[in-house]
Amino acid sequence: MKIVRNFIFLIMILLVSGLFACETFAKDIIPVRPNVNRVNTVGLYQVGDDVRIYKEPNENSQILYRVRYNANEFFPEDIGFEKFFVVYLKEKSLALVAVTDLVDDWVEIVYDNSTGKTGWIKMDDPYKFMTWINFFNNYGKKYGLVMLKGAPESCKEMRASMEDDAKAISTMNIPQKINLSVIRGNWALVSVMDLDRTPKTGYIKWRSNDGVQYFFPAIK
Predict the structure, then answer these.
(1) Sorting pLDDT into bands at 50, 70 and 90, what band is 25?
(2) Environment class of residue 169 by beta-carbon count within 10 Å: exposed (0-12), middle (13-18) or buried (19+)?
(3) Own/partner pairs, 169-175, CB within 8 angstroms, 24+ separation
(4) 192-199 contacts: CB < 8 A, separation 24 or more?
(5) pLDDT tens-digit profile of 137-154?
(6) 31 with 213: CB under 8 angstroms?
(7) Neighbouring residues of 38: CB distance < 8 A, sequence distance ≥ 6
(8) pLDDT at 26
(9) Distances from the Cα of 82 to the Cαs of 47, 99, 186, in angstroms?
(10) Which residues make beta-bridge pairs with 183?
């Protein structure tokens, strides 16, 4: 009986260890709060699982990092999934980093979202780059938008036109879904069904004049 108990105890330890090991797997990454370190970005780039980050847009330049990752691990550990990616959805094969500049077949990316540090990577496909407007048109129209936590309350105001001093015609309270119709510059035309079941349509400011994003596609 003692041998059986010891065997069962060993199995339980292995199961618990397996559960904790699963927690190290990469979790989906979608922006939750506004990030002031990405205000100067122009769009997003889809990266592969082995990325060389250069100091300058030149293969003879110093390599700052070689980033490699899979569903379970990210190297180097001092960067990690959440610092590197703006969006990482394993099931959708989406691995997007923020872009600050483009030169020929190179893109300058933010490789550390916590500090705003940038470096250059060579594009293997120019179609993997999306401007923010293209990204919102592709994913915002499909999935709708979500207001990021910590965004100012003024973001809930729906205006009659794309002007800071335009009349506020309605206010989002607890919208069930924010449907995107048109996005131009810093403004988005949206329609919502609020908690009181009242349909509302108007313009919202999806990012500030200096580039801080307040809304993001609610990718699922």
Answers:
(1) low
(2) middle
(3) 169/202, 170/200, 170/201, 170/202, 172/147, 172/200, 172/204
(4) 192/158
(5) 999 999 999 999 999 999
(6) yes
(7) 86, 98, 110, 113, 116, 211, 213
(8) 60
(9) 14, 16, 26
(10) 188
Give the Cα separation of 183 and 135 in Å (integer): 11
Q: Which residues pair with 180 in a beta bridge?
A: 190
Give the end-to-end CA distance of the chain in Å, rounded to a whole number: 50
Q: Taking CA 144 as the corner, what is the angle to CA 139 and CA 146, rounded to the nearest 5 degrees? A: 110
Q: What is the pTM of this model?
A: 0.85
Phi, psi of 12 (to 5 degrees): -65, -40
Contact between 214 and 151 (Cβ < 8 Å): yes
Q: What are 100's two structure tokens?
A: 């600050």
Give the tens place of pLDDT for each residue, 165-202. Answer: 999 999 998 888 899 999 999 999 999 988 878 899 99
Q: Which of 5-9, 92-96, 191-195 has the lowest mean pLDDT?
A: 5-9
CB atoms within 10 A of CB 50: 10
Chain mean pLDDT for the chain = 89
* Strand pairing class (63-69; 74-75): antiparallel
Q: Under 8 Å CB-to-CB from 140, ≥6 apart: which residues?
A: 180, 183, 188, 217
